[in-house]
């Protein structure tokens, strides 16, 4: 009988050898796995910390440079205000333009540094996301191991445990071990949920940073265009005045005379041509004041009516709007009317004026080529000429770069053209 019992035990042990492995795993494997997890995590976390600290150090350097640039920008702002309080002169205007150009250069550099800093912050976020993802994968793997081991333990009967365990106390120790493993499993699952939540929050921050970078890119492009415009304006001013104050005085006198003569000419022409003008554009004659854009305005307005950033605003207000357009773009009549003249001036370069019904007139300046003839009638949308404005080119006048200068005169007085034009979505 004793031999039979012994043989039976041997068969049972052989048949249930996996249980022995489970017990051994409970004592040795799982603690080893847990220790390996902690060791791997510590190594990965330390490596990631070194990388993130390095990136944060670079971010701090960029932030310090931004503070330096801010101080320089303030310096040039004060210089500009100081010059603006002085009596207007060619030399003074050139100094203002020079300071504006320097300030703009630092504004652009500041934006570039901000972009680089944001890029580094994005890299930090990406590293953190990667780290969280790796931890999440490891935790899921360990959770799967625990679930599998506990499932195997549940399939063992108490009778089988008693046959293998040397004492009853060992059996209760095993039950406590099982409970501990269940608690560890619960904790691991809670950590997985927490890590998942943290990961989602980090991703949300990353998306926000990306949007900020896109906005900064758009701002940078606009500031670069503004800087080019200011530099072109300075070059045009020097070219037109030959660096002499008397030449600048002539330009200003010409502008004043042009404003006065235009007002009188519009009034005289409207009285003479009233009946004919009413038939050219019925909408305006009825008082439905709405004009068409003379060129596609989707590329944006580079200078607004009485623009506070206009480079020459200390000498005269900007009497219209500047619409960005490449050289050679067709200029269309904003409404039907009478082409009063094609002229060339020191300030506007080649420009023309169309008189419309309703005491309205439009002016188109910096034209590279005239197409509509003076003393002729045009319909709404007819081509009047081609755009210009490239500094130094024929007919450009005093210009900041390729564009169309467009004015609206009501009763001879310049008014904001955008009040007479349909709204339009512009490209950023």
**SS-based class:** alpha+beta
| Total separate domains | 2
What overall geometry do the principal axes of the alpha carbons give? elongated
With helices defined by DSSP (H or I, 4 residues minimum), what is the helix count?
7
Q: Rounded to an integer, what's the Rg over CA atoms?
A: 40 Å
Overall pLDDT metric: 77
- The count of strands amounts to 11
Low-confidence segments, given as residue ranges, are 1-34
Biggest beta sheet attributes: 8 strands, antiparallel
End-to-end Cα distance, whole Å, is 95 Å
**How much of the residues is beta strand, in percent?**
5-15%
Helical residue percent band: 55-70%
- Could you give the order of the helices and strands? HHHHHHHEEEEEEEEEEE
Give a brief rundown of this model.
By secondary structure, the chain is an alpha+beta fold. Helices cover 63% and strands 13% of the residues.
């Amino acid at each position: 009988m004793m031999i039979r019992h012994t043989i039976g035990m041997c068969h049972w042990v052989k048949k249930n050898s996996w249980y022995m492995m489970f017990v051994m795993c409970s004592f040795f494997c799982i603690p080893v796995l847990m220790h390996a997890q902690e060791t791997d995590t510590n190594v990965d976390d330390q490596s990631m910390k070194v990388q993130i600290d390095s990136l944060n150090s670079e971010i701090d350097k960029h932030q310090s440079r931004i503070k330096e640039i801010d101080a320089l920008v303030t310096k040039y702002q004060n210089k500009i205000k100081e010059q603006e309080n002085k009596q207007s002169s060619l030399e003074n205007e050139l100094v203002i333009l020079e300071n504006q150009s320097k300030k703009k250069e630092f504004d652009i550099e500041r934006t570039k540094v901000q972009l680089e800093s944001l890029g580094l912050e994005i890299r930090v976020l990406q590293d953190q996301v990667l780290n969280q993802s790796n931890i999440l994968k490891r935790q899921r793997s360990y959770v799967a191991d625990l679930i599998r081991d506990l499932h195997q333990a549940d399939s063992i009967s108490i009778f089988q445990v008693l046959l293998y365990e040397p004492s009853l106390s060992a059996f209760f120790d095993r039950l406590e071990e099982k409970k501990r493993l269940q608690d560890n499993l619960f904790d691991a699952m809670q950590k997985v949920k927490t890590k998942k939540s943290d990961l989602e929050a980090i991703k949300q921050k990353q998306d926000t940073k990306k949007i900020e970078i896109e906005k900064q890119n758009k701002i940078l492009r606009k500031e670069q265009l503004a800087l080019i415009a200011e530099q072109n304006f300075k070059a045009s001013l020097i070219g037109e005045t030959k660096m002499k104050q008397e030449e600048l005085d002539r330009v200003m006198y010409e502008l004043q005379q042009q404003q006065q003569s235009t007002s009188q000419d519009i009034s005289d022409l409207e009285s003479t041509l009233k009946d004919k003008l009413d038939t050219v554009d019925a909408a305006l004659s009825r008082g439905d004041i709405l004009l068409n854009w003379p060129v596609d305005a989707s590329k944006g307005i580079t200078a607004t009516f009485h623009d506070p950033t206009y480079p020459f605003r200390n000498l005269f207000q900007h009497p219209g709007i500047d619409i960005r357009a490449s050289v050679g773009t067709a200029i269309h009549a904003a409404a039907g009317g009478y082409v009063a003249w094609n002229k060339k001036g020191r300030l506007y370069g080649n420009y023309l004026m169309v008189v419309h019904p309703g005491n309205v007139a439009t002016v188109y300046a910096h034209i590279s080529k005239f197409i509509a003839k003076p003393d002729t009638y045009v319909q709404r949308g007819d081509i009047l000429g081609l755009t210009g404005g490239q500094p130094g080119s024929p007919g450009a006048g005093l210009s900041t770069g390729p564009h169309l200068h467009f004015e609206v005169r009501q009763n001879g007085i310049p008014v904001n053209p955008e009040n007479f034009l349909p709204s339009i979505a512009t490209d950023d």
